[in-house]
């Protein structure tokens, strides 16, 4: 199953932050990290990834810098302190959410409340 940009709506920002957790990367490498890290399920168009990176930069969660590699300009991004903090919080939220969904999707019986 390959997810499209619409299916990831609301989750893309945290996924992009997670790709930058290990250090700075240029935009195309971030796009590829999403694809490879998801086993090909998140193969998003650059028209989805780059606007999200710009949004994260405006929000102060990542910072970008230009460099020249093989005569071509590249913009690399890295997490800010605020971005690290946001990623940590979102990971905790995601674990709670995933646990709840997994519990509901497992075969019953479910606990009942009265």
From TrEMBL:
SUPFAM superfamilies: Winged helix' DNA-binding domain. It comes from Kribbella sancticallisti. This is Helix-turn-helix transcriptional regulator. Pfam families: PadR. Residues 16-88 form the Transcription regulator PadR N-terminal domain.
């Amino acid at each position: 199953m390959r997810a499209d940009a619409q299916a990831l709506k609301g989750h893309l920002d945290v996924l992009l932050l997670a790709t930058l957790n290990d250090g700075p990367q240029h935009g195309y490498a971030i796009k590829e990290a999403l694809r490879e890290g998801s086993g090909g399920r998140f193969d998003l168009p650059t028209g989805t990834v780059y606007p999200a990176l710009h949004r994260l930069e405006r929000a102060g969660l990542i910072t970008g810098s230009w460099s020249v590699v093989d005569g071509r300009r590249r913009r690399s991004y890295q997490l800010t302190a605020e971005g690290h903090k946001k990623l940590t919080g979102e990971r905790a939220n995601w674990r709670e959410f995933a646990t709840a969904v997994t519990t509901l999707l497992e075969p019953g019986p479910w606990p009942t409340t009265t």
